[in-house]
Design brief:
- The protein is 32% helix and 19% strand.
- With 259 residues, it is of the alpha/beta class.
- The strands form two sheets. Strands 1-8-7-2-6-3-5-4 form an eight-stranded mixed β-sheet, sandwiched between helices.
- Strand 9 (248-249) and strand 10 form a beta hairpin.
- The longest helix has 16 residues, at 48-63.
- The protein starts with a helix and ends in a 5-residue tail after the last strand.
Length: 259
């Protein structure tokens, strides 16, 4: 009866049953001691979570090998897109690539608050023309020397209009001169128009679905986004998978069982 009334997404099988979107990877549910830390991957770490992010990095090379601008979004807040985007950025940095992560949620600035970033300068101040030098926006992550961050900046009254300006593509092109990968942590795709506007510059879109949180009735909407090609190279990452139903073999990689 509990399963009958549970309308949340229950793992990979639900996503495959309701959509044809490629699944880029699955992130295990965090342990209690890991939940307090915004960054859970590190050099030479072999935990389930760290290995799942490495697998994500490898799968990206198959799906979109030329992708340099990677956008993260979700259906609703609380699905873990900021958690996935920042840890994925660190995982890329560990391959000796230069990474910059942009907080594109100009309304709530979730990533900037989580990482305690200075918000006097950032994406919004660049888009409004207050900043002219890219170097004024960049802040070190203090996690990895190849990983930098740009905060959301001051909360603007008109975020959608700012994002539609020509200064946004210009910002991305300038960053491409200095970084190998540009990671965009965006707002939920089905709640405000910002994600669709930001998506025009992305080479790869990673849609984060939290296991047990997202209602399965949203999945047809995601399939519609995929079929209509509203986002470039739309792929799915399932976050918060219960490891009891997944078995790791030889210390890495997922098994085939669904529990």
């Amino acid at each position: 009866l509990r399963l009958l009334w549970n309308t949340g997404v229950r793992g990979r099988r639900d996503v495959e049953d309701y959509t044809s979107m490629p699944i880029l990877g699955e992130i295990p549910k965090l342990k209690e001691k890991e939940e307090a830390s915004p960054i859970v991957v590190a050099e030479h770490q072999t935990s389930n979570v760290a290995e799942s992010f490495r697998l994500l990095r490898s799968n990206m090379d198959f799906v979109a090998p030329q992708a340099r601008v990677i956008m993260f979004t979700s259906t609703m807040p609380g699905e873990g897109k900021s958690f996935v985007s920042r840890n994925f950025a660190v995982t890329l940095a560990m391959t000796n690539k230069k990474i910059v992560l942009l907080d594109m949620d100009l309304r709530k600035r979730t990533l900037s608050k989580t990482l305690d970033l200075t918000t006097k300068t950032g994406v919004s101040t660049w888009l409004s023309g207050k900043d002219e030098r890219i170097t004024d926006l960049i802040q070190p992550s203090n996690v990895h020397d190849k990983f930098d961050i740009i905060s959301a900046g001051i909360v603007p009254p008109n975020p959608s209009e700012l994002l539609m300006s020509d200064r946004f593509p210009l910002l991305i092109e300038e960053l491409k001169k200095h970084y190998d990968y540009i990671i965009l942590d965006c707002v939920p795709a089905l709640m405000v128009a910002d994600a669709g506007i930001i998506g025009r510059v992305a080479d790869l879109t990673i849609y984060v679905i939290r296991n047990g949180v997202l209602d399965r009735r949203y999945l047809p909407e995601l399939e519609k986004l995929y079929k209509e090609k509203k986002f470039n190279n739309l792929t799915v990452v399932i976050n918060g998978i219960e490891m009891e139903s997944k078995k790791y073999g030889y210390g890495y990689g997922y098994g085939y069982g669904y529990g």
